[in-house]
Amino acid sequence: TDPEVSTRKKTFAEVQTERLDQAERTVLIKCPSKLNEKKLLQYLSSHGNVKSHFFFENRGINALIEFSEKSSIASLQDAVGIPSASEHHVVPFKSRLFTFTLKNPVSQRVEETPLHLSPQCHIPVKDLIEKLCLADSISSQMYIVLNEHQLTEENIKLRFLACSLVRDFTCAYFPDSTVKPFGSSVNMFGKLGSDVDMFLDFCDTGKQATKMKKGPFEMEYQMKRLPSERLATQRILSVIGDCLDNFGPGCANVQKILNARCPLVKFSHQPTGFQCDLSVSNSIAIRSSELLYIYGCLDSRVRALVFTVRCWARVHGLTNSAPGTWITNFSLTMMVMFFLQRRSPPIIPTLDQLKELADEKDKHIIGGYDCSFVSDLRKIKPTKNTETLDVLLCEFFEYFGNFDFRRNSLNLRKGKEVNKPESSPLYIWNPFEQDLNISKNVNQPQLEKFIAMARESAWILQKEDKTQQMINKEPWGLAALLIPFGKSNSSKMKNRMKGIGSETIRSLLDSLKLNNANSQQKAVGK
């Protein structure tokens, strides 16, 4: 790669291009449990240089092998046999998924060194809390949460490979199509174990249109015409879904959900172990992914705070992987971004500020919405804010525990609290489609639960005596926030709960008195 690129933070597009290219040169091999790593690599090297590899556990041992040259894959495919059809008849689709077996395992069991397996899921909360108790500050606890949950280099490679393997099918129909991940797989806020959102892109259609404008004549493809883009999307996804279902090695539980607002195909990709959602190009979703990528790159505190708040929300049942009336991870992430824009001085810029820095190549108008913002991270001035994560976590809970949700909404374009345009309990403006509320699904009880938990957490962090808790070997700092409140046996927690309860009741009584006084005044005024 270009040395200039490798010394600076790469742009979102550069990272995507590099990863997609990497995935094209990659194969996945199911290995026997007793494997001699050296022998396998020796065999593979006869087809070309192996640039990188790792092993992981998923229904047995698997190896992801990245070659330096794409031609090595063709060479390997030429040497690979087709499984014998003794019990089942096979669908003769030759993919980049292979099974490696030893012909006579006994003679080959030499100098077995245990394989290093890359973890593909995060540790349970119980183990996490134990690790957190050993840290020396809330900041370092938050970085532990980030390190335990964030996507690893290996997991990201596996995600791009899953997309690349789906692309092998779409290319049969649309040779210049690409399949790219979007959302949490690429925006730097993905958690180990999360689904892979991928979309099918026909990136050349726009470029094609400009090609023929020069010269005295015009030439264009004859293509099937359909009454709407939606119908075209449904037809394409229906056929690709059938392909994966009928011919895709390891593609199981394929569901075509074509009448959804955004038609998609859901399937489970067993070789990589991912649940996948495939849709057709959604440019605005890509812009959201890039915006979060930029925010995540600007300051290391951004990701540490987001991962911590999301972990906290999950433990307390504020978020849920099933759709419903609770706050989504995306909404929660946007709440953290808004909070960071509101700090003094701000830790991240507003979207309008990023738009002012955009040049010609950053201009994106999608479906009438202006989605332009700067892509070169060097143009964004670093923040002068030096607050620690200890302070930021407590302030986050304080800020939203006392936010006037009844009157105000969160606008990330302006970085301001603005009057709510309609009465949804929680209103977070979609940064691009300005007439949409990304948290429209959240109901009043869920918002109230969030507010109560935020207040309680701020209270715990402020009242805490860290040294005493460490001496007593009690969970402290972030660890104390990750124990479901009221579930702990420690008398301290019970006392806290009493405090919280009586405070909450007192504030409710106060507000009742206030309301009462107001209604009496109104009555007098009539």
UniProtKB/TrEMBL annotation:
GO terms for molecular function: metal ion binding; poly(A) RNA polymerase activity. Its cofactor is Mg(2+); Mn(2+). GO terms for biological process: RNA 3'-end processing. It comes from Aegithalos caudatus (Long-tailed tit). Residues 391-426 form the PAP-associated domain. It holds the Pfam family MTPAP-like_central. The gene is Mtpap. Keywords: Magnesium, Metal-binding, Transferase. This is PAPD1 protein. It comes from the Eukaryota. Gene3D superfamilies: 1.10.1410.10, Beta Polymerase, domain 2 (3.30.460.10). CDD domains: NT_PAP_TUTase. InterPro entries: MTPAP-like_central, NT_sf, PAP_assoc, RL. Residues 138-296 form the Poly(A) RNA polymerase mitochondrial-like central palm domain. GO terms for cellular component: mitochondrion. Residues 11-79 form the RL domain.
